Amino acid sequence: MVATASNLRVFSAIVGSKYVRAANADDAVRGASPKAVVSPADEEEVAAVLTAASTHHLAVVTRGGGTKLDWGAPPTRCDLILSTSRIEGIVDHEPADLVCVARAGTTLAVLQEQLASTAGFRQRLMLDPPHGDAATLGGVVATAASGSLRTRFGTPRDLVIGASFVLADGTVGRSGGKVVKNVAGFDVAKLLVGSLGTLAVITEIAFRLHPLPSASRTVVLESRSVDDLCAFARAVGRMQVTPSVVDLHWPEGLVVVRFDSSEQGAEVQAKRVTAEIGGRALEGRDETAMTDALAGSAWQGSGDLAALAVLPSRVGELLTSMSGGICDTVVLRPLLGTGEVRFPPAEADAVRAAVRNAGGRLLIKRGDEEPVGVADDVALDLMRSVKRRLDPAGTLSPGRQIGGI
Amino acid sequence: MSGGLGNAVLKRLRTAVGDDGIITAPSAVRTYACDGLTGRRVSPAAVVLPLTTQQVAEVVATCAEARIPFVARGAGTGLSGGALPVAEGVVVCLSRMRSILNIDLDNLQVTVQPGVTNLEVSKAVRPLGYFYAPDPSSQQVCTIGGNIAENSGGAHCLKYGFTTHHVLAATFVTADGRVAHLGGAVRDAAGYDLLGVVIGSEGTLGIVTEVVLRIVRVPESTQTVLAAFSSMGDAGEAVSRIIAAGITPAAIEMMDRLAIRACEETVHAGYPDCGAALVVELDGPSVESAAFLREVIDTCTASGATEIRVAAGDAERALIWKARKAAFASMGRISPNYYVQDGVIPRTRLRDVLEQIDMLSASYGLRVANVFHAGDGNLHPLVLYDDAEAGESDRALELAGRILEACISAGGSITGEHGVGSDKACYMPKMFSPSALGVMGRIRDAFDPSDLCNPGKALPTPRLCGEVPGVYRPHPAELAGVAERM
Amino acid sequence: MGAGPPRTYGRPRDDAASRAFDDHHPPDAALIADCVHCGFCLPACPTYLLWGEEMDSPRGRILLMDLAARGEVGMDADVVRHWDACLGCMACVDACPSGVQYNRLIEQVRPQIERRFARDWRSRAGRAALFTVLPYPRRMRSLAKVVAMTQAVGFRRTMQSPVLRHLVPRTLRRLDDMAPDLHLTDLKVRTPRRLTPQGPAAMRVALLTGCVQDAFFRHVNIATARVLAAHGCEVLVPPMQSCCGALEVHAGREEPALQRMRELIAQMERLHVDHVVVNSAGCGSAMKEYGKFLADDPAWSERAAGFAAKVRDVMELLAELDVQPPARLQPLASRVAYHDACHLAHAQGVRAQPRTVLRRIPDLDLVDITESDVCCGSAGIYNLVAPKAADDLGDRKAANVAASGADLLTAGNGGCLLQIQAALRRSGHPLPVVHPVELLDASLRGVPAAMLRDGALR
């Protein structure tokens, strides 16, 4: 697309010229350079923008906080960035129902702040994805991003109860609703989670919330032995305790177990762990210091980065094969077998082989390597079929999904 | 002999499943004419009972090539008519695929065939200290395949989530007879979450033939409280306060006087005669459950509980639950017929929606027993009627429709767990705009462009709402102004 | 799993093709309407467990009754087949939350089939043959002699040869499979006519000697009399008793069954006893319902109800009594698996009492079997007319018994004992099978457990 005056005028007419600008180098998405950035105010404007883009055969990439734009394969075409920065705000928060509805451009940080400060009902959306501060809800959902809290609370897939979205041809869709218990219609929101913006532009999301815990305690095990670390994590998993976080850091050699509960609840559970299987208990400032130090450690530093997953029973095997310096760091949720690995690009083959040998999956977030353990052909075919029906012209982030979808 | 299937098709089906695996006798196929929803019955042309994924694929491929509609069925206990056959179509009954294939305790996964009953899964792993969390009340007979189709919940889904939170992978036969593997025992399958959209799709996208389920640890301690209140309003108040206090019970169930009476006749669990009874279950580490139990008891008392009982042990707890789970079927003891609905409302609207139901029941002159998952606002009003009385069944349907309307107005849903099926498809336009429904239709087309896989379910179709062979008769929902013909 | 129910051959009689039921006690519409189609009965039904088909589940069978009652299906072989396949175990009655009286319904259907469905000549001949022998104690004794003689000459051993087996007609093979080990000496022993307790009699009871019981399990009858006496009962065992009619009534042969019931009532009435004690679950359950069966007969309905009220299963009665000194229960060190006979557990609700009584025996480790509620496949004449289905259930039961790790199996019904024993033999893990009353008798007589296990009990 050439940023001709007439092209930009189409969008200016929809959102106002103030909210259309020519793109610059910073707006590139994995090497694809768009020509313009458009910021619609609401769902209606999104629909109009997408309809216009379709009409002019323009490829659109949606951007929230831009923190995870490099996830996914490079788009085969990128003419326009659709920014959700203006589509923000909490639409509905029913604290007694533990449900909130927010616009997709709201940052996670802003949402959490609002939820935590409601009088009489301090609540939280139990997601702690990387780049949490700047990440928008839409982006978190579109990338299915999660963090340490996944061990207890799951991923966006488990916490989204409804969504509103716009298809490439401007059709507005909705699935789910404001109640957690709801099986009316297809769970389209599930398709959107992790869809990397290739099926629709998400405009509004309903989440289930949890009460904000009042206290926490952390237990840490430090060891250089993969077996010891894995055994410790497994033992925690078998105990009658309910940690929010069980993370394993390698080769740093740490298992971090955190309990979020009442003061008494957290204390008793932490004590139970240290008494029965060991580790060192932390609270207060020490705890905060450790949490801060480890936060997002996988994402810092240079190198390629990938999400990985293996069967929990094969975590030990995987870590052993990833020793010897082929990776900079691995951060896992050992009870689920999921996590991230950061590695020098030169070691990509070794990392891929290690994951493959452990029967696992590897999905690149930062880098150009091929993934490991991708869906089978018939499943890919179904995915292509879904894409064709929802975005027949291939307007939305073409090529970003696996299989070139 | 078998309607319009034709000899060539029959031959192919017989080859696929064997002579023992196909039913065509007219009297026999009639026994498959409905599931747990008995209001509408349609005899299929044939019923096949495959034993393997390959057989299912061959059956589906045969139907697809011959353009014959097919409907998957488990135990036929669904309450929304999701397994209602298509006339001249085939029913693919998964009841013979009922093996537990693998129990992997290291990874907390169990691999099963879709005909395994929900309870069988828990029974298999309970001695090992684990259980399968989604527990619909019909769990001793309903199958995992059916649970997946409906994204079933159950009393304990308040804390543990629904079927979709406990399914990791599925072998899936597509609508044209190919075999796909969705999700995975290893998490985070790449690409679109096809498994996520298949779960809850009510069998309209394909047929699941093998599943990997997630199991969870039996909690250290379980405390069950039975609290009696003089009114539903008071009980509802207690529920709201419990949730607002930040306690997440494993389950909160409520029953009204009528429901309690019926259950007691069946189970004799010793429920008190009261306006409303709450069953609250707390589980988890002992220290947490003990603290929460005290709070729950205090909250119930503060909300006006007339009697509070804590189950003394497993036997008493099991009996309390047996009564609750037998609720629907027990209605047979106090009424010749009943029609159960499945609306959801935000918990905060419990009191006023219950009042509305009361008023509607009075104005229609039909009793409504209320049983529900109070913790997540999922109501099961049981409209009691007598089919032998002229017009009563139509009035019952109408009343049920008005109740659903009230749920939608309160910001809820027309179905929390039973599914839309053939029963509530006409109400979908009240919940979703035409364009939203259109998107769902596109997704269905992506999986089943020929519209052969359980057609006419879940999404409203022009054919479905109110059509009866012969002279057009409007569906009671249309008459009530709650449904629209599209 | 895979195969379906056995085929039924025949055709509707008279106008039964369009009007399945006649007016004499057709299945009650009100009872049919009790069914709300919830499906809770499915997992309890042995035939659903075997075949996974709706038609062979209580829900499906009731639906067929409904269709038949409305004239939408006739009394065709395709329909009768599924009613025939019903074992009559009544597990569904216990499982049903709506209180559907399926047992009543199937009882109403069977005579209708007898009257309105003409079976093919083979089935008719087979059934006629069975009912020429089974309900006649004297003929059963003669049959027992024949069985004992064949076994004495090694017929049974011959039947174990896979080749020779097939030279013998199927029915004979089947009878041999089902028959217990019998010695001619067993048949020479007489059942005492009267036994008095050592001390004062707590009550006066009559013992039903039965047909199959008297022929194949006479030792159990004798043991029953001894045990009752040891518990303070004066026991009367009238000779030449009539058959109780259970087998016939469960097969729908209404008139002959009612006749036998009248005869038995008349015989027992004369004795003026407190209870009529039965050690066969099938008989006991029918006898407790005599009032219902004879409700139409004004001359007999009250007498029948009075009689029925006195009927007790032996284990049920013993649970209320104590062993009278100097008799005492001596240790019987063994691990015994308890099988719940359907007509005891489901029909009479007697589950706890046998267990309570058996647990009084010192050193006896009583264990439950997995799927204890699932029928073993005996079901009256079922294992003779539907051998494959019965064998499948029998095999399932045998596997569960073997898995319990028991040395012995006990069950309160002769048919079950024969069925499970045959299945255990087939599986290659033969175990001794005994009636619970035999365990008590052995304990009272100080018989060492080893003798029990070796099957040398008589």
Question: Layout of SSEs?
Answer:
The complex is a heterotrimer of chains A (405), B (486) and C (458).
Chain A: H1 5-15, E1 20-22, E2 36-38, H2 43-55, E3 60-63, E4 80-83, E5 90-94, E6 99-103, H3 108-116, E7 123-124, H4 137-143, H5 150-153, H6 156-159, E8 160-166, E9 172-176, H7 188-192, E10 201-208, E11 210-211, E12 215-222, H8 226-238, E13 245-250, E14 254-261, H9 263-276, E15 280-282, H10 284-294, E16 304-309, H11 315-321, E17 329-333, E18 338-343, H12 348-357, E19 361-366, H13 377-390
Parallel strand pairs in A: 2-4, 3-4
Antiparallel strand pairs in A: 1-2, 5-6, 6-10, 7-11, 8-9, 8-10, 12-14, 12-15, 13-14, 13-17, 16-18, 16-19, 17-18
Helix pairs in contact in A: 1-2
Chain B: H1 7-17, E1 22-23, H2 26-30, E2 46-48, H3 53-65, E3 70-73, E4 90-93, E5 100-104, E6 109-112, H4 118-125, E7 130-131, H5 144-150, H6 157-160, E8 167-174, E9 179-183, H7 194-198, E10 206-214, E11 216-217, E12 221-229, H8 232-244, E13 251-256, H9 257-267, E14 276-284, H10 286-302, E15 307-310, H11 314-325, H12 327-334, E16 337-340, H13 350-364, E17 368-373, E18 378-385, H14 392-409, H15 428-431, H16 434-447, H17 476-479
Chain C: E1 10-12, H1 29-33, H2 46-51, H3 58-69, H4 77-84, H5 91-95, H6 102-116, E2 117-119, H7 121-133, H8 137-152, H9 155-159, H10 162-165, H11 170-178, H12 184-188, E3 194-195, E4 203-207, H13 212-216, H14 218-230, E5 233-236, H15 246-250, H16 254-269, E6 275-278, H17 281-287, H18 290-293, H19 301-310, E7 311-313, H20 314-318, E8 334-339, H21 342-345, H22 352-358, E9 364-368, H23 382-385, H24 387-403, E10 408-411, H25 414-427, E11 433-434, H26 436-445, H27 449-453
Parallel strand pairs in C: 4-5, 4-6, 6-7, 8-9, 8-10, 10-11
Antiparallel strand pairs in C: 1-2, 3-5
In short:
The complex is a heterotrimer of chains A (405), B (486) and C (458). Chain B is of the alpha+beta class.
